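We include the pair:
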Amino acid sequence: MKEKLSQMLENIKKDLIFMANEVEDALYKSLKALEKQDKKLAQEVIDHDQKIDLMEVRIEEQILAIFALQQPVAVDLRFLVGALKMNNDLERIGDHAVNIARTTQALAGEPYLKPLEDLPRLGKLARNMLHDSVHAFINQNPEIAREVCVRDDEADELYRKIRDHIIQVLKEKGKKFEQGVELIAVARDLERIADLATNLSEDVIFMKEARIIRHGLG
């Protein structure tokens, strides 16, 4: 029975890592599409999202089956609770990548009202936070996870800087209002991805140390 449970847990870990890689790729492509105004690449992200959704459902079904049939306790129980949350957060990151891809399609062919500048910086930060949170999960390394959590404040500050700058440009130029709103929405998507990467890292800490550090706890 214990061997069967161990194999089921290992399968869930492998599936989560595979899903995380797919989500990372979607985020990379959506940002590249935005930078290059590449509608075809943006459509790839949109089309691929259903695959990510199906992976999320399959992983959730596996986790719920273990709860129902294996009655896990202690470390195994913490892993499953964390994995269930990570599964959902990864799917949400995929949705934000789709949002960015849809914005790219809406703005394609229209010169940006200002150089993107800080937007790629926020994109790189969010991507790195996601990558490192997945690395922390693979290696069950709470120290890497904590480093990700620290960077969330930087992402929040950069988002506010981008938002305020775009608003100022719109006031000065008095045109391309809709584009400005869309670009702020992209920045917001990236800030939310950074938040979700932080959630993933918090879940790693919970798995390894049985500590809840959300909302300043722990």
